[in-house]
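STRUCTURE:
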């Protein structure tokens, strides 16, 4: 057993006092533990970086960054970690951004009990991150996710959401046949939400000739 292996056995990742709140180490460790696809080990993170064609990092280096033993990640690696986890680069050094993303992660992970897959949740986080980077306010992004949560709690299933996402307009209209008033209201609310996400008015007639 090497000295490094012995040290790992003595101290679990993320437990060092040097990984204080707000440090790069704590934020990276938080992402590893709370990623919808996780929790992710150091080996998993290293493998995922390589498979995604992102700047590679050995499992040892990931562990050193998570525990604060290394606190000087290159910009290249910060970009890679941000893309891997689907968060803004500012997450690692801006407190407000980190707070918003952590809240979104908590909300997304709550949807696991509704049948949403881990990959779907990760993809949703990537979409929300793009909205933040495009200038949408954190409050609006959180509101949009809260709307999706309410739809889920109202009984709009993952399969229904997928049908709306993947199907054409005609197919969507056909699926509306036979829905109750409550179901139609939920479907309309979801379509309004999608239109807002794409920067369109909720009334399709607005701004049209």
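SEQUENCE:
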């Amino acid at each position: 057993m090497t000295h490094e292996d012995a040290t790992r056995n003595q101290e679990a990742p993320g437990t060092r006092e040097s990984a204080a709140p707000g440090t790069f180490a704590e934020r990276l460790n938080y992402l590893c533990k709370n990623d919808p696809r996780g929790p992710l080990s150091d080996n998993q993170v290293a493998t995922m970086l390589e498979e995604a064609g992102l700047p590679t990092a050995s499992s040892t280096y990931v562990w050193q960054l998570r525990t604060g033993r290394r606190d000087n990640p290159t910009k290249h690696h910060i970009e890679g970690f941000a893309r891997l986890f689907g968060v803004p680069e500012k997450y690692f050094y801006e407190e407000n951004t980190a707070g918003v993303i952590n809240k979104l992660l908590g909300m997304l992970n709550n949807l696991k009990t509704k049948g949403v897959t881990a990959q779907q949740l990760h993809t949703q986080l990537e979409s929300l991150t793009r909205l933040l980077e495009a200038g949408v306010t954190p409050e609006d992004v959180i509101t949009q996710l809260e709307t999706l949560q309410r739809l889920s709690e109202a009984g709009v299933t993952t399969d229904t959401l997928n049908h709306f996402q993947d199907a054409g307009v005609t197919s969507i209209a056909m699926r509306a046949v036979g829905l109750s008033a409550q179901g139609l209201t939920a479907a309309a609310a979801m379509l309004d939400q999608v239109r807002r996400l794409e920067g369109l008015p909720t009334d399709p007639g607005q701004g049209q000739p």
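REMARK: The longest helix spans residues 181-197.
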